Amino acid sequence: MNQNWREHAACQGLDPEIFYPVEDDEAVPAKAVCAVCPVKVACLEYALSGRERDGVWGGATERERRRLVRQRRRTA
Ligand code: SF4
Question: SS3 for 71?
Fold first, then answer.
């Protein structure tokens, strides 16, 4: 997948630590950044494609992405 979207990532230069919360309720700061990120959809799709397991991507935690994958499987 083309990864040009990374150039427009709102998280560029930010502390990567906030994107790897231990618990989902610690993901609030990361989600706030993702919420205003112009490449949120591309980022989420990249992570959902299975390339990224850990961390917050496209505003979704690992657990939330697993849920999304399950929902998509059910509706496919
Ligand atoms: S959606 Fe979030 S994790 Fe993805 S590029 Fe944007 S700010 Fe970074």
Answer: helix
pLDDT (tens digit per residue) in 12-70:
999 999 999 999 999 999 999 999 999 999 999 999 998 788 999 999 999 999 999 99
Q: Encoding tokens for residue 14?
A: 């930010």
Phi, psi of 21 (to 5 degrees): -70, 150
Give the distance between the most distant pair of CA atoms in the chain.
Answer: 37
Residue whose Cα lies nearest atom 3 of ligand 1: it is 57
Pocket residues: Cβ below 6 A from ligand 1: 9-11, 19, 33-34, 37, 39-40, 43, 56-59
Sequence length of the chain is: 76
